[in-house]
Amino acid sequence: MKFDKMDLSILHELQQDSSLTNQDLADRVGLSASPCLRRVKALEESGIIDRKVTLLNQKKLGLKLTAFIQISMDRHIPDRFEVFEESLASFPEVTSCNLVTGQSADYLLEVVVEDMERYHEFLLGRLTRIPGVTGVHSSFLLRKIIDRTSLPLDHLI
């Protein structure tokens, strides 16, 4: 899909606040409501706009512990990875799962829980019981320095 500056402006505004009404969005980008809505619909239909979500305040919900977990698997075969990934999909504590390369781990997870006791229960009660998991290395978040949900768009200009 080819983007013009108006598309990029719409994407930028929606990344900052997806709850904008079409009229508010149109006002911010300098379009009338109908052309703005057509552009948003086209961006949605093309898959550029993947989904709209509401971001919740982790601390106010009592989720005070974030762990970054490196997982090593015993065998590098598709069936083993599939079982692991399907298991993780049922764990709401896992906010991110990435298959990675360039380090000793196969997966890098981000997990959010209430406290260390809940983390311990999650780790020993569920995560390490998934077939094929042979190594777990955990690091814990001390402080978020940058916490963006928006993607860079400058390369599209």
Automatic annotation (TrEMBL):
Keywords: DNA-binding, Transcription, Transcription regulation
Keyword Acyltransferase found: no
Database matches in CDD domains: HTH_ARSR
Record's keyword annotation contains Manganese: no
GO annotations of cellular component type: cytosol
Domain HTH asnC-type: from-to ranges: 3-64
Pfam families named in the record: AsnC_trans_reg, HTH_24
Gene Ontology molecular-function annotations: sequence-specific DNA binding
Biological process per Gene Ontology, one example term: regulation of DNA-templated transcription
InterPro entries on file: ArsR-like_HTH, AsnC-type_HTH_dom, Dimeric_a/b-barrel, Tscrpt_reg_AsnC-like, Tscrpt_reg_AsnC/Lrp_C, Tscrpt_reg_HTH_AsnC-type_CS, WH-like_DNA-bd_sf, WH_DNA-bd_sf
Positions of transmembrane segments: none
Record-given protein name: Lrp/AsnC family transcriptional regulator
Taxonomic source organism: Marinomonas transparens
Lineage, opening ranks: Bacteria, Pseudomonadati, Pseudomonadota, Gammaproteobacteria, Oceanospirillales
